[in-house]
Amino acid sequence: MINTNYAENRAYFAKLFEADKVVIELKLVEALLTLSFACWAHKEILENGGEVIMREKYGDTFSVDKDRIWLKLDLAPHGKIIKTSKDASQEEKDDAHAKNKVIRERLFNLSVEISEKWSAIKRDFMGAPILRALWAVHAKNAENSLNCDIPYRENESFWIRINDKEKMSVIYNVHFEDEIDKTLAKEMLEQLTQA
After folding, report:
1. Following CA atoms 33, 36, 1, 18 in sequence, which dihedral angle do they give, to the nearest 10 degrees?
2. Low-confidence residues of the chain, pLDDT below 50?
3. Boundary (domain end) residue, out of 68, 102, 126
4. Shared-domain flag, residues 33 and 49
5. Does residue 5 lie within any of the structural domains?
6. Does the pTM of the predicted model rise above 0.85?
7. What SS3 class is residue 134?
8. Is residue 36 in a domain?
């Protein structure tokens, strides 16, 4: 659950994921919760539907700078745990306890909503060009301007090619360094073509 004892919890930072030059970081400073995301194809994905789709899915919490995307949420409007002084009356303590119960429940529900939504940031962002092309194919108005090349990893890309208004192809280039991986991949592809 989100800790809203801002005075006690002034800052929190966690690097949640780092692989293939994809970095996801979570920060809580005062009442501002931020999730930042950086990846190889940041610019290409933004240009090919990433910004539109992320704004649609994440609304006002989404923002972009030159090399990262951000999800930001101000927790202050959602309530802050009320602390009572030692010399508060029982009525004041009961009132604070009742209000805190409501705030904790609201924050628990918010934390569930945020974790479910924000945990999909990598999938949503990296898949945005494919989703944009799929929507166009579904609407039967796909065009060649949707064709794009996304270098999603070092030495690896995917390409989206529109075949006609109702068909598209997504082609992946996968690079294997290890000879055993290359042999296994070749064998699997040969078996797929024979099936």
Report:
1. -150
2. 1-8
3. 126
4. yes
5. no
6. no
7. helix
8. yes
